[in-house]
Amino acid sequence: MLLLIGSSSGATVTDHDRVVTCYISTWAVYREGTASYALDAFDPTLCTHAIYAFAGLDEQNNAIKSLDAWQDLKDNYGKGGYEKLVGMRTANPHLKVLLAIGGWNEGSEKYSNLAANPERRQAFVKNALDFVKQYGFDGLDLDWEYPTQRGGKPIDRENFVALVRELSQLFKRNNLLLTSAIGAGKDTIDSAYDVKALSKYLDFLHIMCYDYNGSWNRRVGPNAPLTSKDFLNVEYSIEHLLNLGAPASKLVLGLPFYGRTFVSAMARARLGDVANEVGFPGPATKENGFMGYNEICEELRRNPSDWTLTWDVAAAEMVATKSNDTASQVVVYDSTRSIANKVRFAVRQKLAGLMVWSVDTDDFNGLCGPETDTYVDFGDREKVELTIPPPVSGKYPLLKTISNAVIVALDELTQENVIPDVQEVSKPGAGSSTGSSATIVTKLSGIAFSVMLLLATAATYSF
Fold it and tell me: The GH18 domain covers which part of the protein (predicted)?
């Protein structure tokens, strides 16, 4: 394996053909200090799709409603968030902007009741179209969390398909996108979603590949493990959805820009150790058991001697532990190395791309230093030469890593696919003046990748 250090500043979403969908939790503007995230901080060059989260359901009128009119709208001297995000397409024509309806706090019961009533469904479909068009969005993202659960009913599985089908029929006639956030746990998938049917009507399925474990399990566990000994991991979720009939070209793998936190009565606690039911909060997000990547990296920068960092190979996640003789605080989170490994998995599965929850907990201020181990797991075959970009520095290190890793993963895959063909036609001992078969492999694979990059760069991204 030979790794060549690249000199470019990094790839953007127009350098490849994968989706990079960015959720923006717009309430992050109310966080304190440098964690406050206004839409002015969003970088549209790093995403193909931006999703404004969240709008809510107006049950009385079977319509979409703003959940924060002052932030979302321009009425009564509001800040006009809808208009601001949609307006970013002018300078960034590759960008699609969608509105998400739902989310955890909206619950499930109200959506269950809506979907169960054909007349209410039809009214909502028409009103949703009017709302999306009124504010200039490119489509709607459904975040019902989750059908059949949290006050839902078993019939939600079929009714959700009916709602999606009716929305899709109208949206397609108006050249609008329809997507949905999909839970990643096996039990949720099996009970809540008719995957094959939904795949017919949705443009993309955003798979929420995180929250597999948390303090609620009373054990230290990985938030978003790539692999594990049970069903609670990214690889199983994606393979299960593929087996259920979801086309790879519509699956978008979700990446968490946050970690799960734990408090354990054990010194030097590790994954699997007993923990309290409630984890500690981040200083700005202030949610028990949750800590944004920006909060994590800033804490590690301020107090490096307090924390021990270890890499869990199976989970492909970083584990940060702070201990004394009687107790531990643990954060399990996705570093740039974690992101790169999951991007690599998505590329090898030929998925549509990656989704992030959410950009406002990336290091969007660029306050933390670069991580140098992003690609140490790449290039695991002999005679594969990869051009590795330099460590990402500055703003949005996780988000920038996605496009960089897509390019590296495509390069790796291209070379692996070229190698066997070249070796078959090489003639040992032929005495060619052009060099050995290994040299030919390197040259051909490099040419193939260069052609691929030129085509990708020339293409105009559209859906």
Answer: 18-409
pLDDT of residue 447: 39
Q: Is 317 a catalytic residue?
A: no
Does residue 357 belong to any structural domain of this protein? yes
Structurally, how many domains does the chain consist of? 1
List the helix and strand counts (H, then E) for the chain.
Answer: 12, 16
3-state SS class at 54: strand
Helix axes 156-173, 109-116, angle to 10 degrees: 70
Can you list the alpha helix ranges (DSSP code H) found in 175-265?
Answer: 186-192, 195-201, 234-243
462 vs 136, residue with greater confidence: 136
Using 50, 70 and 90 to split pLDDT, how confident is the model at 420?
A: low
Among residues 222, 224, 204, 214, the alpha carbon closest in space to that of 341 is found at 224
Q: How many CB atoms lie within 10 A of CB 286?
A: 11
Confirm if 399 and 46 have CB atoms less than 8 A apart: yes
Instruction: Give dist(CA 68, CA 83) in Å, integer.
Output: 14
Instruction: Exactly one of 59, 83, 106, 145 is catalytic; name it.
Output: 145
- The CATH number covering residue 207 comes to 3.20.20.80
Q: Does a structural domain hold residue 206?
A: yes
Could you say which DSSP state residue 81 is in? H
CA–CA distance, 74 with 95 (Å, rounded to integer): 22
Is residue 43 situated within a structural domain?
Answer: yes
Residues 460 and 215: their CA atoms lie apart, in Å, by 44
Q: Does residue 398 sit within a domain?
A: yes
What is the band of 325 on the pLDDT scale with cuts at 50, 70, 90?
Answer: confident
Domain boundaries, position 207: 19-258+335-418
